[in-house]
């Protein structure tokens, strides 16, 4: 059984120019299987699937297997027996009240935390058990966006985006090529030389998204990306995330924003007190609650 | 690894907290300067030991009676003493120096102090045997055997005087090393503190670096290099300090004994010989401190 891994092959260089394509049907596949699939696996959309289903088109990108996370400081688990699978190219909302475990969920994927029990897979990384020195490789295949943008205030827009590539040792000519490309993708062409404080909140978040996406990650994690933005700007950001999702990048977004979840009609995973209480393929933000 | 990136990070890091950097550099420089001074004393001792090892003699001074009456050691007890000395094991050669020769040598040694020569009379100087030993440590045997013999006034081991002098130098060296050590501790703490401050001021950058998957080397090397660069600047300063100390102080104070060949000169070559060690110590210690600090106090 093969679970396609793209972590080695989501190169910066877009060979055809223009937008990156969804990676389906690429010939280069990593045959290492660290994301095992059992027969009778239930897909996110609820159908029983055969094993072929996974091989060609929809490899798993994220899998949590009975994950429990207990922090030393509190006896109540932040996550309790959570199992979630996310297929490549999905757009998933992670919702739930504050303290429901959304942040822990995201931190586990990034290996900022290690689960107390259970296993976490991202692409072909066995996240909880991998060696520490391989963690940077994992993180290179995950992009991150936050509520507070986290831009470097003393660097220009282009420098902020380039920084993400510089620090992972990408060659300069690659950086010179891909940074303008990604700025165009997020709609910031012409603002490359602005400083972050000269931009609106929405534009700053675009820079952050550009920085998260510039290395063409497999997964984009967004933690309340619209939390600081007005509804119209939020809408624009969501359109951008959708566009990124259409390139084949899996998007996992933690949010409180009802209207966005309701209007997008994507998969919704709801957490409450560390448990998954709902996993709808085309969900809305908690109707009956 | 992009060298230019790391390098520019180091420069901005050092510039960002200039005061701490200067304090760190100065402390390191003083510590290393003292270490270098201690190493120079070690070299001085080495040089002196080779300089004197074949020159140190045991002097057997003869009584006034012998000195006055026996100009070429042909009578007893002088001749007998000479034979006995020559036959003692471990003795390489025995030279007789009569009173006139002693006076001539005295005049030569103190040629720069004529008033001293005026005061001295040849009659005050004893004749003596200069006994050269094949093995310096055998001097005790000669002293024991010849002290109190008829015709012998006293037996004097120049080596003992020299040893006292070496003791003084060793003391100076130890004191220098001790102060250098205390200073080194201060430098260590400053390096550690500077790195912590530096890591704190750059926490956003470092956070982003971690997030986008920069390796440990990328996140930590700038901090390490910052410490090492400051350490190396400190060691260069230490070498400058040593050169200045040599030219402005040592050369002047020790001018007379150096010129008369009593103390070997410490040349620029000695400083050149010592300085690579200072560079090495600076780099190693600052890198080590940096590494430990990053490991223990800074979560990168």
TrEMBL record, chain B:
One GO-annotated biological process of the protein: cell division
Subcellular location: Cell membrane
Topology versus the membrane: Multi-pass membrane protein
Keyword Cell membrane: yes
Membrane-spanning ranges: 21-45, 221-245, 277-298
Coiled coil: none
Domain FtsX extracellular: 56-155
Keywords, in A-Z order: Cell cycle, Cell division, Cell membrane, Membrane, Transmembrane, Transmembrane helix
InterPro entries, sorted: ABC3_permease_C, FtsX, FtsX_actino, FtsX_ECD
Main subcellular location: membrane
A GO cellular component entry from the record: plasma membrane
Domain ABC3 transporter permease C-terminal: 178-294
Function, as annotated: Part of the ABC transporter FtsEX involved in cellular division.
Subunit structure: Forms a membrane-associated complex with FtsE.
Family: Belongs to the ABC-4 integral membrane protein family. FtsX subfamily.
Protein name, per record: Cell division protein FtsX
């Amino acid at each position: 059984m093969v679970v396609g891994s793209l972590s080695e092959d989501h190169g910066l260089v877009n060979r055809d120019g223009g937008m990156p394509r969804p990676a389906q049907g690429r010939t280069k596949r990593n045959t290492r299987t660290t994301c095992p699939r059992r027969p009778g696996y239930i897909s996110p959309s609820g159908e029983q699937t055969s094993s072929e289903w996974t091989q060609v088109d929809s490899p798993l990108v994220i899998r949590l297997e009975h994950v429990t996370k207990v922090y030393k400081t509190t006896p109540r688990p932040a996550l309790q027996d959570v199992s979630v699978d996310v297929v490549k190219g999905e757009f998933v909302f992670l919702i739930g009240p504050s303290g429901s475990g959304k942040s822990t969920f995201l931190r586990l994927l990034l290996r900022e935390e290690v689960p107390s029990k259970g296993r976490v897979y991202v692409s072909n990384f066995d996240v909880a058990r991998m060696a520490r020195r391989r963690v940077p490789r994992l993180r290179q295949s995950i992009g991150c966006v936050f509520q507070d943008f986290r831009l470097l205030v003393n660097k220009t827009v282009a420098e902020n985006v380039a920084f993400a590539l510089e620090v992972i040792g990408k060659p300069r000519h690659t950086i010179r090529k891909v940074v303008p490309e990604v700025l165009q993708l997020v709609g910031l062409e012409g603002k490359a030389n602005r400083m972050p404080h000269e931009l609106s909140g929405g534009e700053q978040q675009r820079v952050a998204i550009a920085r998260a996406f510039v290395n063409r990650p497999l997964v984009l994690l967004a933690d309340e990306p619209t939390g600081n933005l007005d509804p119209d700007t939020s809408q624009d950001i969501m359109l951008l995330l959708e566009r990124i999702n259409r390139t084949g990048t899996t998007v996992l977004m933690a949010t409180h924003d009802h209207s966005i979840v309701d209007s997008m009609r994507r998969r919704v995973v709801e957490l409450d007190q560390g448990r998954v209480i709902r996993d709808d393929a085309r969900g809305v933000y908690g109707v009956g609650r | 690894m992009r060298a230019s990136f790391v390098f520019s990070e180091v420069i901005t890091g050092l510039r960002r907290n200039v005061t701490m950097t200067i304090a760190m550099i100065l402390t390191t420089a003083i510590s290393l300067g003292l270490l270098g001074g201690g190493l120079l004393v070690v070299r001085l001792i080495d040089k002196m030991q080779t300089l004197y090892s074949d020159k140190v003699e045991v002097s057997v001074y003869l009584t006034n009676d012998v000195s006055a009456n026996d100009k070429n050691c042909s009578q007893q007890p002088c001749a007998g003493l000479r034979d006995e000395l020559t036959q003692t094991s471990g003795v390489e050669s025995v030279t007789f120096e009569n009173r006139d020769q002693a006076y001539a040598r005295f005049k030569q040694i103190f040629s720069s102090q004529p008033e001293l020569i005026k005061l001295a009379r040849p009659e005050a100087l004893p004749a003596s045997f200069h006994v050269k030993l094949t093995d310096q440590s055998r001097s005790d045997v000669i002293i024991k055997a010849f002290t109190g013999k008829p015709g012998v006034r006293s037996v004097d081991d120049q080596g003992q005087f020299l040893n006292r002098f070496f003791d003084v130098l060793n003391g100076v060296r130890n004191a220098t090393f001790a102060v250098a050590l205390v200073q080194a501790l201060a430098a260590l703490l400053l390096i550690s503190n500077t790195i912590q401050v530096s890591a704190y001021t750059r926490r956003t950058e470092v956070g982003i670096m971690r997030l986008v998957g920069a390796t440990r080397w990328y996140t930590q090397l700038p901090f390490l290099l910052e410490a090492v660069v400051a350490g190396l600047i400190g060691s260069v300063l230490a070498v400058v300090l040593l050169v200045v100390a040599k030219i402005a102080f040592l050369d002047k104070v020790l001018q007379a004994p150096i010129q008369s060949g009593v103390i070997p000169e410490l040349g620029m070559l000695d400083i050149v010989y010592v300085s690579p060690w200072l560079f090495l110590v600076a780099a190693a210690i600052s890198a080590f401190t940096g590494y430990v600090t990053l490991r223990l106090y800074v979560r990168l």
